[in-house]
Design a protein that fits this description.
GO terms for molecular function: channel activity. It is a single chain. A two-stranded antiparallel sheet has the order 1-2. The termini are far apart. It is built from ten helices and two strands. With 295 residues, the protein is an all-alpha fold. It has a single domain, classed as Glycerol uptake facilitator protein, CATH 1.20.1080.10. Helix 6 runs antiparallel to helix 7 and helix 6 packs parallel to helix 9. Strand 1 and strand 2 form a beta hairpin. The protein is globular.
């Protein structure tokens, strides 16, 4: 009977030392990033409210993009199960820390199409999020390279659609993944609003599937942009433009497909869309009050 028992201590000893070190680095990387986000958000309280909101967009997007570099450590040493677990943990932690800031740009994209956001707000959000996405890679390089766990230099976007000046069939798979991912994410976020762990689970599931299929995390425009910055340098112009359009516009089309088919307007609002509605209500309130007095 004793021979049939599982010796967990022996199983753990079989795990390579490099894997344990990578897991240790991952935990430190996560804790350090979470601490930085917490302190940075606290620092924004010293700024005027509007500026603080923009800064929190930067901080939130930065954290979501940066955490994926840490998750790729688990992918390298523990496979896709490790990647799934890492994304699940990170999105659970950083959704709580960031509250509603740095939400998926697909939500804001729909608000733009429905003219439910101020142009200035949208412009500042785009600048803040893209800047954060670009900076996240350099943060990961700085932190992880010092721990001797280098960030992957492989650009999965390069020659993804083009090879020998010819379009590749994988383009169809990527377009389908982005479209279906955008549609699925809309339904999930609509159904499970404010359920952080559930949303984190589905993000982990969708990201893991998309990365396994085509090597990119979809659908999330800013996470794509965090990789696009250094990949596009070595890409031909046509491929760089095509990659930008596919990974940014196709998921938005899938996202917008849901309310059109279901004929139910979205209930999702970003903090900027909510601000727009509140400001519009305030601007109309005095007018309504004056009309009542005249009657």
């Amino acid at each position: 009977m004793d021979d049939d028992k599982v010796n967990f201590a022996e199983l753990l000893q079989r795990v390579p030392t490099e894997s344990w070190y990578a897991l240790f680095v991952y935990i430190l990387y996560t804790a350090f990033l979470a601490l930085n986000v917490y302190m940075a958000r606290a620092f924004t309280s010293y700024f005027p409210l509007y500026i603080a909101r923009v800064l929190r967009e930067f901080i939130a997007t930065f954290s979501y993009c940066a955490c994926l570099y840490g998750d790729e450590i688990l992918l390298h040493y523990f496979g896709y199960i490790g990647l799934f677990a890492g994304i699940l943990l990170h999105f659970s932690v950083f959704q709580r820390l960031n509250k509603r800031n740095g939400e998926n740009l697909l939500i804001i994209g729909e608000e733009v199409l429905r003219m439910n956001i101020y142009v200035l707000d949208y412009g500042l959000v785009i600048v803040a999020q893209i800047s954060a996405a670009f900076c996240s890679r350099y943060y990961a390089l700085l932190i992880l390279d010092t721990t001797l766990v280098p960030v992957s230099e492989i650009c999965h976007l390069k020659h993804l659609f083009y090879e020998n000046d010819a379009l590749q069939p994988i383009l169809i798979i990527v377009v389908l993944l982005e479209f279906l991912g955008g549609a699925a994410l809309h339904m999930i976020l609509r159904q499970f609003q404010k359920r952080i762990e559930t949303i984190a689970f589905f993000y982990a599931l969708i990201f893991t599937i998309s990365h396994y299929a085509v090597g990119v995390f979809a659908p999330h425009p800013m996470i794509f942009m965090s990789r696009y910055a250094y990949c596009s340098v070595d890409m031909v112009t046509e491929e760089a433009l095509l990659a930008f359009l596919v990974h940014n516009l196709v998921p938005l089309i899938g996202w917008m497909f849901v309310p059109i088919v279901t004929r139910k307007p979205t209930t999702l609002r970003s903090v900027w869309g909510q601000r727009f509605e509140e400001m519009e209500e305030k601007s109309q309130a005095p007018q309504g009050g004056n009309n009542k007095k005249r009657r």
